[in-house]
Design brief:
Distance between the termini: 35 Å
Number of strands: 0
Shape: elongated
Helix content: 55-70%
Strand content: under 5%
Largest sheet: none
Length: about 90
């Protein structure tokens, strides 16, 4: 799996650090984190939203061009916004 710029920066910082030590119960912490991530990341919630007809038409057109379902595009945009990777122009 390819790493994004943030992950590469984080990995580089960890590799250069002289103060980071492995926890004694590392394997237990790791398996708990994996389990938490699995449960958190796999859950999704259905929502209903009103979108102007023209916007929906254009979204479906772009999704067809990219061969990506429009729901996936909407979900990706929401995720990018809530994680701070996308800023609205007000």
């Amino acid at each position: 799996m390819a790493m994004d710029a943030y992950e590469l920066e984080l990995l580089e910082a960890v590799e250069k650090s002289e103060t980071i030590e492995r926890a004694e119960d590392f394997e237990e912490i790791l398996s708990e984190a994996k389990l938490a991530a699995k449960h958190f990341l796999n859950k999704s919630k259905n929502v209903n939203i009103r979108i102007p007809e023209f916007d929906m038409l254009m979204l479906k057109r772009k999704s067809a061009e990219l061969n990506i379902p429009y729901q996936t595009i909407l979900s990706s945009l929401i995720h990018q916004y809530v994680t701070g990777k996308l800023k609205p122009k007000l």
